[in-house]
Amino acid sequence: MAGTSQGSAYPEYSPTHSISPTFGVSHIGTQSAVPQSTEVDEWQAAVDDALSRIARLESATQQLNESTDQRGRSWSLPVEPTEQARVPVWTSRREWLRQFRHHTTSPAGKALCARNLIKPDKAYAVAQAHAHFAESHTGRGVSAAKSTIAARAKVSESSVNRARRVLIALGMGIEQVRGRNLKTLEFLAAEAHHGGQQHRAASTWSLSSPRTIVATTPQRRLAKTRPSRASERATRHRARNSLRPDVNRVYQPHSSRPGPIGTDTLSSVGFLSFEVLPLGRTHQRAHARAQLTTKKRSTSRITPRPLALQRTAAELVNHAPALRPTGHIGAICDLLRDVKIDTTRWTGRDIAQTLSRDTADRGWIWPTRSSLISPLAYLRRRLDGIDWTGESPSEQRKSADLARKREQELLESSHVQRTKMAANPEHRAKILASIRAHLTCKQQH
């Protein structure tokens, strides 16, 4: 008992609390740390309630995503079906852009763009960016951010705002939901949709082709498709043969077969009617014309440029990008050939180095690609001012390498010669022994 000498030799120092290895210090006289059954039931009820709320929340977010038909990598604000029903769908992406182009380039459209401080071409670029993010069949669901549309159209965000005013004035673009911050359920639905955090959603637009726009837009002219010459000849041939009932007769009996007298009965020519022969001659003439055309093409074919010339031109524009022509690289090849540069000795790198050295000697600087109006004319003027008959830098390097190699070979051969002429230890020992013997003999005499 506490306060007595029973169980302790020092009752006045008996502890008034106990130390638990799990819960720390627990005072004597307090309740036990083991939870009672009522506490366990309350805890389980709280856990079950939280799990049920989480399940209901997941079901609500899934239902919200399915009902709003979310697509893409961002969560868009839902639009009421009644609001969408009031907006006519567009004809197609191509036709909608053609309609917008027509109505912004007309006098009334230019005046509308001028009132909104935007040019028709820039407004068309913004409209094209909107059409890129729209649904293909309906033109709805444009939920891209303003910055995304501006980046695709390569304009500023203020230009996007001005172009949208033009769309609204023409009735070809309708903002159905204004962008705002997401609510809690919408935030969770967005996270369930794309797996990231999204705190704000952009406006949702629908692109439309109103009846007035479609009626006032001229119809697109379809290109007339003319049949080929072969099909025209076949049609004329069928028309001629339809008036001659015996033209399809190929084989005739021996007694009634027409043909020249004395024709061989075993010849295959006798089994063909005379009406079929003109067609065969026509085919022969067509075949002859085809052979003649092929022969002319083969004889008039341009001789290909040498491989060394092509490689030199490619290396030149690679080391001097400012000289790259706007068209085909063959223009550089023709220019090098006109200047009479031996491309078997001068590489593109040699020509670029020589041009750079000449530019530095003259105190000039290399022009930029944007500052050159005609790169070919500039290159021709620079090439005409340099003598290309001497050794190229690559040939000079090759000559220097050969001279250095010869020097190294001479040094190596001289070292080998000196090594051969040097006395070996055995020969040196013999010479010293003979000298000692000779001196010994002189001392004795």
Plain-language structure description:
The chain is extended and about 140 Å long. The strands form 3 sheets. A two-stranded antiparallel sheet has the order 1-2. A hairpin with a 3-residue loop joins strand 1 (17-20) and strand 2. The chain starts with 16 loop residues before the first strand and ends with a helix. Helix 3 crosses helix 4, helix 3 runs antiparallel to helix 5 and helix 12 (307-319) packs across helix 14. It has 445 residues and is mainly α. Among the domains are: 81-216, no CATH class; 307-388, no CATH class. It contains 17 helices and 6 strands. Residues 1-30 and 247-282 have low confidence and may be disordered. It has helices at 37-68, 81-85, 93-105, 107-115, 120-132, 146-153, 157-170, 184-194, 211-216, 229-242, 277-299, 307-319, 330-339, 348-362, 375-384, 393-421, 425-444, and strands spanning 17-20, 24-27, 173-177, 180-181, 200-201, 204-207.
